[in-house]
Amino acid sequence: MKRKFSLLLCLLACILSFAGCAKVDETVEYNEAAITQTVEFLIEYCNTVDDAALEQWEQYSEFMQNYQIMTTGLQVTPDSLSGAVDSWRAGTDECGAYVSHGDLSFEADADGVDVIMPVEYEKKNADIIFTFDRKSYLESVTVNAEYGMDEILTKAGLNTLLGMGTVFTVLIFISIIISLFGFIPRIEAAFKKQPETLAAPEVVEAAAPEILPETDDLELIAVISAAVAAYEGTSTDGFVVRSIRRRPSNKWKA
């Protein structure tokens, strides 16, 4: 059992060792003369082309652009050519006018070839990197300007000032917002405050009805009893007046 386990471990070790050695970095094969010709053409073209020529180039159809490039025999595409012109102009804006360039150096790997070319400009020097793919077609052009120590420190200071300024601005803005939180309860209380009660309307006391002086009921009963007795031709002993009620004035109600 132990022997089988040892053999299994050895087999696993061999498999892992072969897997580690299986991947081998291979550099692509390229034609140095053809790439050099393409780089020289790009330098000449980017340095001499004007806005009118670029505008005319942009008006061409895609088929015509590819046809024009094919006639030159250069390994570029319309997009990579336009990108090279844009990068070249960005470099001249930063470094000044083009003066001359040095020898080319090639760095190849499994993905393609990088061509590094030192360039002298009026203001400062720079390295231009031409990146080609596995088929030696141009992919991109990058201009890396060389900065002095004073420029590096100036840019670092500006970046630090900008970063810290942004941080402190945001912190001040947040502190102002937090300070305004104290007014929220007051505003909320102002909205929740009950409206003042309306003033009670003035009560106008109605004038008390005029009270007529009371008439002596006994006297009124005696008078009515005498009138009734005289009308009947009898004495007042034969009846008794218990109540007196006013007769309505409307004869239809009688």
Count all strands and give the number: 5
| Oligomer type | single chain
Coarse morphology: rod-shaped
Give the proportion of residues in helices: 40-55%
Taken as a percent bin, the fraction of beta residues is 5-15%
CATH topology of the domain at 25-146: Nuclear Transport Factor 2, Chain: A
CATH class of the domain at 25-146: Alpha Beta
The CATH architecture name of the domain at 25-146 reads: Roll
Could you report the average pLDDT, rounded to the nearest whole number? Answer: 79
Largest sheet: 5 strands, antiparallel
What separation lies between the terminal Cα atoms?
140 Å
- Poorly predicted residue ranges: 209-214
Structural class: alpha+beta
Per DSSP, the total helix count is 8
Radius of gyration: 58 Å
Helix and strand pattern: HHHHHEEEEEHHH
List the helices and strands and how they pair.
Layout: H1 2-22, H2 32-48, H3 51-59, H4 62-72, H5 78-95, E1 98-101, E2 105-108, E3 113-121, E4 125-132, E5 138-145, H6 149-179, H7 183-192, H8 217-232
Antiparallel strand pairs: 1-3, 2-3, 3-4, 4-5
Helix pairs in contact: 2-5
